[in-house]
Amino acid sequence: MIEVERKYRISNIQDYVKSIARLDAQELGTTTQKDQVYLPSSVGSFREYTKGTPIIRIRTEDNSITLTLKAGGEAHFTREVETIVSDAEATSQIIEALSMHEVMEIDKTRTTYQCEGFTVALDRVVHLGDFLEVELLVETESEVPDAIKSIDLFAKQKLGLSTESIENERY
Fold first, then answer.
1. For residues 148 and 127, what is the distance between their CA atoms, to the nearest angstrom?
2. Mean confidence (pLDDT) of the chain
3. Residue 78: helix, strand or coil by DSSP?
4. Of 3, 32, 116, 168, whose CB has the highest number of CB atoms within 10 Å?
């Protein structure tokens, strides 16, 4: 599966909670996430990140730990492979032994909704602010352009978000 998403920087998360409620969205829950993000040792930081560079993430979410490889993507889509792991510290040591290094830790609270076929997430990210993500999953890269158009249309018509508020930086 290919995850196609747009991330928007927002100023008042409560305004969007109300907007999403008016859409009769199904709330899927609120979680606390701690992400440890790794890049190859040859890449010093996300400022040096280029398309196609693999990203590995260890996510501790409530009581589960997930290892994710994100590869080959741009800001709006990426191929992801995920698996559950039992020990974040041991997983981190394995990743570092494979010449990857941790470039950041991200702490956030995420509330997720399902609405009109889209997954919508409201994120409060420590030290970075508030964000809203709209996501679709597609089977093939040929579906990505239509998915992006659908996300942009939904975000504009249903949430009042313009493409100017898209946040292309990864967090």
1. 28
2. 92
3. strand
4. 3
